[in-house]
Amino acid sequence: NAGVMQNPRHLVRRRGQEARLRCSPMKGHSHVYWYRQLPEEGLKFMVYLQKENIIDESGMPKERFSAEFPKEGPSILRIQQVVRGDSAAYFCASSPRRTASGNTIYFGEGSWLTVV
Amino acid sequence: KNEVEQSPQNLTAQEGEFITINCSYSVGISALHWLQQHPGGGIVSLFMLSSGKKKHGRLIATINIQEKHSSLHITASHPRDSAVYICAVRGGGADGLTFGKGTHLIIQP
């Protein structure tokens, strides 16, 4: 049973380009969470999605960031017109049911974005 | 908003020592997670607690809901335990986790 799969593991983008990070949850998991870890800072919640729906995006920056979790395929975190401050590790996590109901959560290996 | 404080921030110990990492939070929670992160690596969930104590191998996690405090203990520490240990809490009804800044643990041979 494969774990949470993220790709790419490492991504380098020039300022102004777009970054797309993908997350395939564990088999049978329909709840996906994205977290960001800035250098020398702790992890921060970004967005929670359930298949085809954004449930909570209270941690998403208001501009340039978007997330989706289509019916088929992985969840995608998209960052448009990247800036140096977007350089961070982006972690995806999944759970079989809503974590607020007391279910555990499984993390991926992370995607490290570097903006040059 | 929940504030999560971990101590110590950095810890270096000798192989075999008993290790304790502490976590305090400010607002009532529905669950607390202890996570492990190796440098440049992914995050592994060690424990999820809502009360009492859990044990897995050489790792023990406890939580005191009234005092809003949790501890992670490592017995007979080993260099492979060297990692960042992160405490994360989930407030009642909320889905996103709030994280501490982590404890950088180094176990020297």
Structure explained in plain terms:
The complex is a heterodimer of chains A (116) and B (109). Chain A is mainly β and 116 residues long. The mean pLDDT of chain A is 91. Chain A is globular and about 35 Å long. In chain A, a hairpin with a 5-residue loop joins strand 4 and strand 5 (43-50). In chain A, strands 2, 4, 5, 6, 9, 10 and 11 form a 7-stranded mixed sheet that branches. Chain A has no helices and 11 strands. With 109 residues, chain B is mostly beta strands. Helix content of chain B is 0%, strand content 61%. Chain B has no helices and 11 strands. Chain B has strands at 4-7, 10-14, 19-25, 29-37, 43-49, 52-56, 59-64, 69-74, 83-91, 98-99, 103-108. In chain B, strands 2, 4, 5, 9, 10 and 11 form a 6-stranded mixed sheet that branches. Chain B is globular and about 45 Å long. At the A-B interface, strand 5 and strand 10 of A face strand 4, strand 5, strand 9 and strand 10 of B.
Count the DSSP helices of chain B: 0
β-sheet strand percentage of chain B = over 45%
Q: H/E element string of chain B?
A: EEEEEEEEEEE
How much helicity do the residues of chain B have? under 10%
Number of helices of chain A: 0
Distance between the ends of chain B: 40 Å
Total strand segments of chain B: 11
Q: Give the proportion of residues in helices of chain A.
A: under 10%
- What are the low-pLDDT stretches of chain B, counting only 5+ consecutive residues below 50? none
Strand content of chain A: over 45%
Largest sheet of chain A: 7 strands, mixed
User: What shape does the CA trace of chain A take?
Assistant: globular
Radius of gyration of chain B over all CA atoms, rounded: 13 Å
- Give the ordered list of helices and strands of chain A: EEEEEEEEEEE
* Mean pLDDT score of chain B: 92
Output the radius of gyration of chain A.
13 Å
